[in-house]
Amino acid sequence: HVQLSTRTKMFCGCELSFGKEPNVHTCPICLGHPGTLPVPNASAVRQALEMPGLEVVGLHVHLGSPLFELEPYREAVDVLLAFAAEMGKKHGLKLDELSPGGGFAVQYMEGQAPPAIGEYAEAIVSGLTEGCRKHGLPLPRLIIEPGRAIVARAGVALYTVGASKEVPGVRRFVSVDGGIADNIRPPLYESQYSALVASKALETRRERVTIAGRYCESGDILMRDADLAPLDAGDSHAFFCTHSNEVRLKLCEGSEDVEEYFSHWISRIVYAGTKD
Ligand SMILES: Cc1ncc(COP(=O)(O)O)c(C=O)c1O
Ligand SMILES: [Zn+2]
């Protein structure tokens, strides 16, 4: 992190001054509103280029993660190349590296269809080659940031079901032996996962339950109003796609049991990591 000595912020025209009340110099761009278009600060790039001991090797943008659409990558590459061409002419920037950011989307829920890696590659590389031709630039070294897409599907978290509590007219809570400390995403911003009662994988009956964590915080909810096979104490509750967020993999003793539990999922899961 650096403190800029520019008049405006790095990606928008908001005044850059210190000592004012919080949230005074803000606009839709720096508040991250959808549809806004950040533009890098030319003065910051010029100053970096002029600074002895600092080598500007390229440009990077972070679009947000995970991104299910491809068009933003094409647009971002074009914006970066147009800016690189302008900075090249004005200040001698040589674009050796370019990164259109990440991360690639993963399928958390059934029905979600993230692009294949090849489709991301096609969008980014075709955007890069066309853009370099259009802006008269040599091809830079391409950096990609797939992020969680590399590992998310390599793991499944298994929780053991504990006590349950019916709040009449509200919902049925079922507690498991994990929660906010090992899977922070659902409590933090209600992210959703595919899940299965692993010990009743072939059960077709469904019961609406809310899966609560063990950490005694009111926000420690892993799934809200999920339709799952009826849960009893001791059941195994499986969360898919959890390898990316510090979930300790709670694999059963011996992977053969796990394969049996997940007979209809196993072809899509590669087990990784160590026990607990
Ligand atoms: C600069 C940058 N690149 C890539 C990613 C993608 O990583 P992930 O998909 O694991 O969030 C992030 C995370 O938001 C990021 O900040
Ligand atoms: Zn702003």
UniProtKB/TrEMBL annotation:
Species: marine sediment metagenome
Gene3D superfamilies: Alanine racemase, Lyase, Ornithine Decarboxylase, Chain A, domain 1
Co-factor requirement: pyridoxal 5'-phosphate
Record Pfam families: Orn_Arg_deC_N, Orn_DAP_Arg_deC
Protein name: Orn/DAP/Arg decarboxylase 2 N-terminal domain-containing protein
Presence of the UniProt keyword Nucleus in the record: no
Keyword set includes Magnesium: no
InterPro entries in the cross-refs: Ala_racemase/Decarboxylase_C (IPR009006), De-COase2_C (IPR022643), De-COase2_N (IPR022644), Gln_synth/guanido_kin_cat_dom (IPR014746), Orn/DAP/Arg_de-COase (IPR000183), PLP-binding_barrel (IPR029066)
Boundaries of every Orn/DAP/Arg decarboxylase 2 N-terminal domain copy: 41-152
Keyword line: Pyridoxal phosphate
